[in-house]
Amino acid sequence: MRYKLTFVVGLALGYVLGTRAGRERYEQLKKSARQVAQNPAVRNTAETAAQQGRVYAGKAFHTVSVKVGDHMPDSVAARVRSLRDRNTNGVAEDDWGTSNT
Q1: Residue partners of 86: CB distance under 8 A and separation at least 6
Q2: In the chain, what's the furthest Cα-to-Cα distance?
Q3: pLDDT digit string (tens) for 77-93?
């Protein structure tokens, strides 16, 4: 019983001390993350990666629809066609009518 009590007291003490130090460290990490996110080089790199991801996703979509198009159920094929028809002037839209950019 003495070991359990010592363990629980140590656990409680560690929790209290950890939360005090943890909050300060959390605030430091949050500040650092905000500074990194506002860095123009990081923002440009993230945008470039997003654009490349959209290009690769478009290529993958085309490849899959060509290879699997005949084997899809009619309901899925109709949904894909309706989404493809909604794609105006090269800008893909999501289900809410907003662009991915």
Answers
A1: 93
A2: 74
A3: 778 777 777 655 555 55
Neighbours of 77 (CB within 10 A): 15
Nearest of 93, 74, 75, 96 to residue 84 by alpha carbon: 93
Give the predicted TM-score (pTM) of the model: 0.43
Q: What is the pLDDT of residues 60-74, one digit of tens each?
A: 878 877 777 667 777
Helices (H), 1-101: 2-37, 40-68, 74-86
Task: Report d(CA 50, CA 35) in Å as an integer.
Answer: 20
Cα 57 to the chain's mean position, in Å?
15
How is residue 81 written in tokens? Answer: 């066609």
- Choose among 101, 77, 80, 81: nearest CA to 91: 101
